[in-house]
Amino acid sequence: MVDVLSCPTPVLQDINLDTDMNPKRETPASILIIGAGVFGLSTALALTKRPELASSSITVLDRSPEAGVFPSRDASSIDSSRIIRADYADPAYAALASEAQVHWRQTSPTSLGGEGRYTESGFILGADSEPLVRDDGSPTGLAYAKKSWVNAMALAHKEGRPLSSIRVLKNSWSIGVVSGTGGEFAYWGYMNTASGWADAEASMKWFYERVTATGRVTFINGTAESLETDESSRKVTGARLKDGTTLSADLVVVAAGAWTPTLVDLSSQAVATGQILGYMDITEQEQKRLDKIPVMLNVSTGLFVIPPRNRVLKIARHAYGYLNPKPVSKPPLGIPGTKAPEMVSQPITHLDDANLSIPPDAEKILREGLQKMIPWPELKDRPFSRTRLCWYTDTTTGDWLIDYHPYWQGLFIATGGSGHAFKFLPVIGEKIVDAITGKCSEELRRKWQWRSTESEIIATEDGSRGGKPGLILEDEMKK
Ligand SMILES: Cc1cc2nc3c(=O)[nH]c(=O)nc-3n(C[C@H](O)[C@H](O)[C@H](O)COP(=O)(O)OP(=O)(O)OC[C@H]3O[C@@H](n4cnc5c(N)ncnc54)[C@H](O)[C@@H]3O)c2cc1C
Fold first, then answer.
1. Where is the signal peptide (predicted)?
2. Contacts (Cβ under 8 Å, ≥6 apart) of 469
3. Pocket around ligand 1: residues whose beta carbon is below 6 Å from it?
4. What confidence tens digit (pLDDT) does each residue in 211-261 have?
5. For ligand 1, atom 33: residue with the closest CA
6. Using N-to-C axis directions, what is the helix angle for 38-48 and 200-213, rounded to 10°?
7. Ligand 1 atom, smallest distance to 70 CA
8. Domain 4-478 belongs to what topology?
C-alpha cells in the first residue's frame, strides 16, 4: 500500500483505503449536497444541528424540474409507501432501524409519523423452502428470514416489548391465516407487530419542510453535470451545472442516489438497478377488507405488498433488478490513471419518458406475486393502473457507501442505499455527518467505507433479493 497523499497517479489497488481524506478536520465554510433524497435531505438537517458547523453555508442541489419540489418526483425516496422495519439479518441495521422507529412512532400531527405518515400495520417476513446457503456460499432468503427473526426477538427484549409481539409462522397455512387475505405466500416466516410502513412522499415533504424551517439551507433546482476539480491540490471545488453555472464549495457531498455513478466513478462500488412496481385501483369495499392487513414480504422472491390507501394497492419486487448501461456524456470523476467507464448503468424514469413501462415478464411476475399474497379471483386479471421503474443504488453487500473519496479531497459520497435506506430517514443524516466529522463508530465506518473489492458485476448478495442478477433492461423490454 502507498500513502495516497504522496502518490500522484495511483491505480485502484494502490490506494490505502483506510486513509482519511480529511485528516485535519478543517471546518468547511461551504457545503454543497447534490441530491435531496433520503441521504441528502437527512444530511442537510443533521448539518444544521452541529455547533461546529454553525457558520458553514449549506446548499442542496437537486435536478427536480419543479421549483420548491425537493427531491425530484422520480427520486427513489418518493413513492406512496415504504416498509419501516427493524427486521434485518444484519444486527447493525436492525439496531439502527430500531433507533429510526422511535421517530416514526411519534404520531402527533406535527411529528414525522403523524397524519398517517406512519402506520404500524405489522409485517410478515417470509421465505420459500430452500437451503440456507447458495452454491456460491451466499445466504438465501430463508437464511435472511431466520436471522432477522433472531434479531427481531432480541430487539423486542431490549425495547421491553412482549416477545409475543413476534410470532413464528411455521408453515404456509399459518402465513395465510395471519396475512388476513388467505395468501399462503411463503413456506416459513414470522409476523412482527412492531413494524409497518410509511407514506414516503408525505414523509419526505414533512422532512423537507423541517429542513427549510431551519433557515440554514439554500435549495437550488439544477442538475450537476460534472464535479469541478483543482488537480494540483487534488481537490473537488464544486459542481458544474447543465446550465453552465458553477457552484463552489469546500465540501461536496454527492448523495445523488442511483444517478451518483454518472458523477463519480463507482465502477467497483455501486450500480444503478431498476426495480419494478405495480399499482392497482381497488374498490372502497376491497379497501375496507384490506385495511388491516400487514405488510407482506417474501425475501426469496423479493415480492412485497403494502397495505392499500385511498383505494390503491401496491405490489413491488426487491430484486437484483435491471441494469441500464448507457454511454456517459461526460466521464464520471475517477482516480487519475484509472480507466473511466464509457458505459454506466443509469436511471430512466417517468420524467425522462412519460410512457415508460416495465418489461412484460416483470408485469407477469408482479401479477403472480399479488395472487399469492392476495389470492382473490376479482384481482387476478385486473390491470395495473400504473407501473413504475424505481432505481436502487446497489452495493455487493447491501451496505451503504458513506465515506470520503479515496483520492479527491473535499469529496464525500453518501449513497448505496441498496433498496433499504428509506426507513432511516430520521437518523441516517446524523450518521453521515458523524462520518464527515470523523465521529462515526469504527463498526459503521468500516461497514460503509469505500470498498477495496473490484467486482466485475455488482449484485447485492445479502439474501434478500429475488430474480436473477445482470438482466439488461433494454433486452427485457424487447421480450
Ligand atoms: C421500488 C423501491 C422500493 C423500496 N422500498 C423500500 C422500503 O420498503 N423500505 C426502505 O427502507 N427503503 C426502500 N427503498 C429504498 C429507499 O427508497 C432508497 O434507499 C432511498 O430512498 C435512496 O435515497 P437516495 O437519497 O440515495 O436517492 P434518491 O431518493 O433517488 O435521491 C437522489 C436525488 O438526487 C437527485 N440527483 C441525481 N442526480 C443529480 C444531479 N446530477 N444533479 C442534481 N441532483 C441530482 C435526484 O433528482 C434525486 O432527487 C425502496 C426503493 C425503491 C426504488
1. none
2. 320, 457, 459
3. 34-40, 61-64, 71-72, 75-77, 82-83, 223-224, 255-259, 263, 275, 277, 316, 390-393, 415, 417, 419-423
4. 999 999 999 999 999 999 999 999 999 999 999 999 999 999 999 999 999
5. 35
6. 30
7. 49
8. FAD/NAD(P)-binding domain (3.50.50)
